[in-house]
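Deviations from the work plan: none for this task. Representative record:
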Amino acid sequence: MTAPALLWFRQDLRLADNPALHAALAEGGEILPVFIHDTAAERGLGGASAWWLHHSLTALSAALEKRGAALLTLRGDAKALIPELAAKIGAGGIHAGRMVEPWARRRDEAVHKALEKQGRKLELHTSQVLIEPHRLRSGAGSPYAVYTPFAKAAMERYEPRPPIPAPGKIPGATPPVKPEPVASWHLLPRAPVPDWAKEFPARWTPGEAGALKKLGAFIEDGLKNYDSRRDLPGIDGSSSLSPHLHWGEVSPRQVFHAVSESKVTGKGAEVFLKEILWREFSYHLLWHRPEMPEKPLRHEYSHFPWKPDAALLTAWQQGRTGYPIVDAGMRQLWRTGWMHNRVRMIVASLLVKHMLQPWHQGEAWFWDTLVDADLASNAANWQWVAGCGTDAAPYFRIFNPMLQGEKFDPDGDYVRRWVPELAKVPAKWIHKPWEAPDIVLAQAGLRLGRDYPLPVVDHAKGRARALAALAEVTGKSRQGGGDEG
DNA sequence: TGAAATGTTGGGGCG
DNA sequence: ACGCCCCAACATTTC
């Protein structure tokens, strides 16, 4: 009789187009699917991610159950648990999707070593990405540091093929240990703010079924005009696939395939696929530059004169900076676990530039509050905004929050939705209420400085201060430091 | 996947 | 008719 295979779910919580599952099935024996809440992981789950994971695992568990396999859920040190389980069931293959996170790579290395002592091995499959970062190098043999050549090379290398269909039946193995139910992991919000995620269920359906439904709906309604609609935070022009992609409830291959099957061409489809490639690029960077979540990729930025300020940081986190588009974004984030991408750039620019807060602070807040929190994308994009990434926005690109608001939320719908204090301010003034005549504010029922704050940092002064900080850094780098790239 | 400062051009008002 | 000035509109440069 064929030995059972161990199928280790991590960030690929799906049954369709799951190469690890496919390989486990191909062995022909029973399968023990397991998910471990790794208490030894070096970077803990953010709050919103924990909420998502709870529901996604519930969905995965039910889907497996329906096909004849029970998901074994455990909590503990995966480095020890996986080899133990493998030994206990006398596993044949041990299969998982490859992860790019540095801590996960170290963990897989340790698991692999432990398994080797048993004469077994950890088999990692391409699951999260279209192209494994280690398989893609530039002509010079070095990893890509700039998006455009990366995207070009990735597309040349990519081999379109239909995704693997979800299996109809999965012969489940009997778990050798008692599961620890997901509910006992306490992933859902608890005191002191037990209800902070109360609006999430209306916005999100974690799990594979929810992911496929969202993909279908987006391709039907949103793909064609994605290029123009995606920049307007007041309308729902995004795909909202990011959290599903993060947890692997749908694979990038499925997304690519669905787009090509749809026969939607033109700018909309093109720009959307480019966004998927930005995600790939982040994974590529994290693989080749594993220090990315902690250290600036341009090393002269390690001397950047940040001015940490708890009060400013709190104002930003709570959506009380006095800049309407920024506060709308921060409040959307808190309430829905998500923020429109255009607005992410604006709020990040304000934090890092006008406020001179270290980008790690923003990264940490996003990590905790975003349902799509992803180490690679989060770190890469914060470095992009801060100017210290390899292919980053130059530091002097400083967003003007009023102009950005007027450009991308011209009627103020987005601001009005998330900052109700400003609901009655006319469009002309909604992105700069402090410039509105007193009579306008009175008619809008708005007492500035009381109902809604004045800007915590003056735009012109903040801009000038940020530019001066840049001069300091580039000056230093000219004297001593080298460059990276 | 900027914004502001600075430069250039050309039409119209006007003496 | 002509030159001058003003300034919006656009282009280029700089941060």
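DSSP finds 20 helices and five strands in chain A.
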